[in-house]
Every structure is written in structure tokens, then in C-alpha cells.
Write a structure and sequence with these properties.
Elements (H helix, E strand, L loop, with lengths): L2 H18 L3 H7 L26 E5 L2 E4 H14 L8 H23 L6 H24 L6 H10 L9 E9 L2 H12 L4 H8 L10 E4 L7 H9 L9 E2 L5 E10 L17 H28 L10
Antiparallel strand pairs: 1-2, 3-4, 3-6, 5-6
Helix pairs in contact: 1-4, 6-10
């Protein structure tokens, strides 16, 4: 059985057991058509409490009903959470159903024990209900907000530097203690001496054993002047002598340079499976939605009567 399926299916049961057992509001999030349950361990199904079922009955757990339609919604949710579970086998569906039945029995037993009456449980349910209401209102307030293609293109043209790949520079160094020694080394390099061989022979830097190879130069690996020099060089070019903050003298060679080009709107951002166009659209949409919610919050604050005692903080 697939790993993602097992984990999700187990989550459905254990999540309810650990955090929200016996909580009506949480339960209704997963069982939207079910009425209040009778207990599994201390009560038997009663005809008077038989629920009105909207859909095809897939399972009855004492007086609770799970419809095929609700089950299919749970399967869709699982597939959305675990993309590798595009389709479930019959056995996997049976396992999921079994876990849902187990969870419902535990929830019913929790009610029978009065766990749903505990203050901490009621507080948890109340908090989750507030979060759900908040999210639903935000969704309702921001639906219909769109970003058109022209806005995306305008943003791209306004901030071109934000959409370029970082330049990757690989370099070597020779580090010596005196300016005279640095000059002798530079002359030898200009006369055709091998940079790596001279680095092994003359350099006092930690990279000497590797022929002066320091790998990719980044903002944390070297001092400012060093980075300025390598950025100014072309691939294969050797620098002039320059002095470091440690008082030593440096000569560097750029082994390789790549990247640093501008990304087009339809290019994918390196390391992410999303295009520049989609990234801009998502960002602009989020900004517009945030602004709409902030406007709503400001209006509600103006219309509300609010008393805050900051001195108690």
C-alpha cells in the first residue's frame, strides 16, 4: 500500500483521537450530513433519532451515517493532500472506510464519557470554529478579485532585476604575504605559468592544496573586494594584484561563469515548478486580497465599540 495513503488514512483516525475527540464542530467538518451521535458503548440506536439521510448510505455506525457522497469527498481531499494518490484501489478505499468507522466509534465513546463537556475541549472547538469562520469570510470577501495579463506584464517591466538568475562564479586564488612576491607570481602567470601549479607552490591560503580552487564565490565565502574583482573578470581571466583585509596580497582567476541572465515571463523560476508569469500573478493577487481584507478590518473597527486596557499587558 502506498506510503502517502497509509499516512493520510492514519491521520484521519489519530488526529481525531489526539486533538478533537468528541467535539461537535470538528466532527461536522468531516461528517457534514450527520446529526448528533448516540454513544457506541453505553447507548443503542433508537428509531426516534434516525437521521434524515441525503445521499447513498455507505455505512452506519450506531446512529451515525456516512454517505457515499461524503466518502468520495474525503477521497478527493486525500488525493489533493497526496498527489501520488491519483487513484485508490478498492482495498485502499476499504482501509480508509475502516479507519473512518474506527474514528467515529472513538468519537462516540468520547461523548459517552463526557469528554465533549470539558472546558478545554469546548474552548478548542470554539477556537477552531472561529478559524473556520474567519477563513470562510476572507474567501467570501476576496472572491472575484482577479489580475489581468497587462498588470502582470507591467509589473515584470517595472522590476526587471527581480527576475534574473543569480550569476555563479567559480574561481581560484593565490595568496602571498608580500607585494614583491605577488608581483613575481603575476609575472610568471602572464608568461604562461599554470595557475593551479603556482597556487600549490606559492599560496599560503587554505585552498593551496587544491590548486587555489575555492569553488563558487558567494557573499559569505570572501570579502567585498574579492567579490568585486571576480565579478569584473571574464571566464579564464586573471586579475591584477589586490590587498585583502588580512594584509595579504591576492591574485584570482575565474574558472567559470554562468547564469545572471534575465528570465522571461514564460520561463520557470530555477528550483521551482512555476513560471515568472504565474509567480507575479500569485503575488499581485495575494497583495490585492490582503488589501481587501485590511479594508474590511478597518471598517469593522470604525463601526465597533472596542475597549482595550493596554496597561494590563
Amino acid at each position: 500500500m502506498r506510503k502517502g495513503y497509509r499516512l493520510f488514512s492514519l491521520f484521519l483516525v489519530i488526529g481525531a483521537m489526539v486533538s478533537f475527540s468528541g467535539c461537535d464542530q470538528i466532527k461536522n467538518l468531516f461528517w457534514p450530513t450527520a446529526p448528533a451521535a448516540v454513544t457506541a458503548s453505553k447507548a443503542k440506536p433508537q428509531e426516534a433519532l434516525t437521521p434524515v439521510v441525503h445521499g447513498t448510505v455507505l455505512a452506519k455506525i450506531n446512529n451515525e451515517v456516512l454517505t457515499l457522497e461524503d466518502f468520495d469527498e474525503k477521497v478527493k481531499a486525500m488525493q489533493a493532500a497526496s498527489p501520488e494518490n491519483k487513484t485508490l484501489t478498492r482495498e485502499e478505499k476499504k482501509t480508509l472506510l475502516s479507519n473512518l468507522v474506527t474514528r467515529e466509534l472513538i468519537v462516540q465513546d468520547a461523548r459517552a464519557r463526557g469528554i465533549d463537556k470539558k472546558k478545554e475541549v469546548r474552548d478548542a472547538v470554539d477556537e477552531v470554529q472561529k478559524n473556520v469562520l474567519f477563513a470562510e469570510l476572507v474567501n467570501d470577501e476576496t472572491k472575484g478579485i482577479t489580475v489581468d495579463a497587462q498588470e502582470i506584464e507591467n509589473f515584470y517591466n517595472q522590476y526587471p532585476k527581480e527576475f534574473s538568475t543569480p550569476q555563479e562564479i567559480r574561481a581560484r586564488e593565490i595568496v602571498v604575504s608580500s607585494e614583491s612576491e605577488a608581483k613575481e607570481t603575476l609575472i610568471a602567470l602572464l608568461q604562461g605559468a599554470d595557475f593551479a601549479a603556482l597556487a600549490k607552490e606559492k599560496s599560503t591560503g587554505s585552498s593551496a592544496a587544491n590548486g587555489g580552487d575555492i569553488g563558487v564565490v558567494d557573499k559569505n565565502s570572501k570579502f567585498d573586494k574579492f567579490r568585486e574583482v571576480v565579478v569584473s573578470l571574464d571566464k579564464g581571466q586573471i586579475s591584477q594584484i589586490f590587498k585583502g583585509p588580512d594584509g595579504k596580497y591576492y591574485i584570482v582567476k575565474v574558472d567559470d561563469k554562468k547564469g545572471g541572465g534575465a528570465l522571461q515571463l514564460n520561463d520557470k523560476i530555477p528550483g521551482y515548478n512555476v513560471t515568472v508569469y504565474d509567480q507575479i500573478k500569485s503575488w499581485l493577487l495575494q497583495q490585492r486580497q490582503t488589501q481587501r481584507v485590511q479594508e474590511l478590518a478597518d471598517r469593522l473597527k470604525r463601526e465597533a465599540k472596542i475597549e482595550i486596557k493596554d496597561e494590563l499587558l
